[in-house]
Write a sequence for this structure.
């Protein structure tokens, strides 16, 4: 199985700040990576697919980048509605695997 | 509007079986691969498996393939997850998801399964 190592596990940031979440795969996943946002009490929602493509309706302050084994999710100008947990997931190989998640809170 | 509505969860005793259902609407169900994903109380996400759009092929997480079976009824736009010999570590929220070749683009609201005596 491909292991997805996500960091940090938790993050506290101020409104308007830029935050970055990292995800490292145990082998090359060829940009077959998605990011999901899960707000408290809700189901996850697709944010980014193919490492850097924004899903429908996702604000442009979210962006994804990376290649090979290293990927990142960046949130520019943090808003209160961005308080959530974020997960990366690889779909290059079966079984699909997720990172452990990053809980983002407001400072 | 795409909707995925799971049902069938609840409290179940260790060793028992349980079948979850997911009714899909708002899209042509028979055009899509579908997956089940679960989230533990500690918030860990685990992909369980998926099924091809015509039901002819399935993939599973190796640790679950001997106890979990995914099936579908395209005439009823319904996805199923048959769980057998459940254990306490199967306690989780189970999500039905739609695959689009680039991630899981729609998720149901989830259904809770608690395994306890």
């Amino acid at each position: 199985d491909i292991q997805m190592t996500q960091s940090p596990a938790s993050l506290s940031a101020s409104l308007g700040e830029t935050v970055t979440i990292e995800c490292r795969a145990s082998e090359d996943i060829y940009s077959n990576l998605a990011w999901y946002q899960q707000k408290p009490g809700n189901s996850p929602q697709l944010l980014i697919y193919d490492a850097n493509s924004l899903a429908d309706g996702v604000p442009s302050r979210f962006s994804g980048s990376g290649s090979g084994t290293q990927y990142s999710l960046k949130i520019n100008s943090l808003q209160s509605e961005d308080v959530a947990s974020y997960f990366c997931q690889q779909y290059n190989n079966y079984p699909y695997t997720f990172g452990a998640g990053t809980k983002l809170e407001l400072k | 509007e795409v909707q995925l509505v799971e049902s069938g969860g609840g409290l179940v005793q260790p060793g028992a079986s349980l079948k979850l259902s997911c009714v899909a609407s708002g899209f042509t169900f028979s055009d899509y691969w579908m997956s089940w994903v679960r989230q533990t109380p500690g918030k860990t996400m685990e992909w369980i498996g998926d099924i091809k759009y015509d039901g002819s092929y399935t993939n599973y997480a190796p640790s679950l393939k001997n106890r979990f079976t995914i099936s579908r009824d395209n005439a009823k736009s319904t996805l199923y997850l048959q769980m057998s010999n459940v254990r306490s570590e199967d306690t989780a929220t189970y999500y039905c998801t739609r695959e689009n070749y680039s991630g899981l683009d729609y998720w149901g609201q989830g259904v809770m399964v608690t395994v306890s005596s």
Notes: Chain B is about 0% helix and 50% strand. Chain B has a mean pLDDT of 97.
